[in-house]
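Please, structure for the following, as tokens.
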Amino acid sequence: TTTTTTTIDPELCNLRNEDFELGSTGKNDLAGWQFLDILTIGDDTKVGIQDSGTANGQKVINTLDGGRYLMAGRSSNFYQKVVESASTSFTYRFSVNVSAAGNSNGRGRIYLTSSPQDAALSVPPLTGTNTTISVNGATSTWKAITFDYTPSVAGIPLYFNLESHRDTGTAFIGFDKSSCGLVV
């Protein structure tokens, strides 16, 4: 059996600025993504959309295609609503590439919620979508992370969350090339 992901009607899965090419650099104009500081002391000043080749922490990050990426830092959450009303008839596939954005191992997670996340992270991930990420800070390799989700309840919205680990000592993490599709 072959499983593929298809391009689908934006009404079914509407991920905006998936390559982080839109908007200005930084965290103030993310063109579809919402930013949350999840540690009250704040994150690094370079959190947000950055150009390939930008130094963050102690490392220069080069993207897969020479374009921009999302520098998620070490204590930030970025989310957006991608499905207005989920169908139990569909299996949705979410993916993103991740890389360390500093010299030590970066940590984070990707997941779905049924409402917007908040700075206290009190909105729990939907069952089966909480994917923990750990990337080697000694390399600049991008690693693809993918998960599938079939809603058990029809009609709920789906919010795609990209998050760096919530502490001050973990290395930075970067995201690029996110996607949303249906498994057919």
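The chain has a mean pLDDT of 83. Residues 22 and 75 are 23 Å apart (CA to CA).
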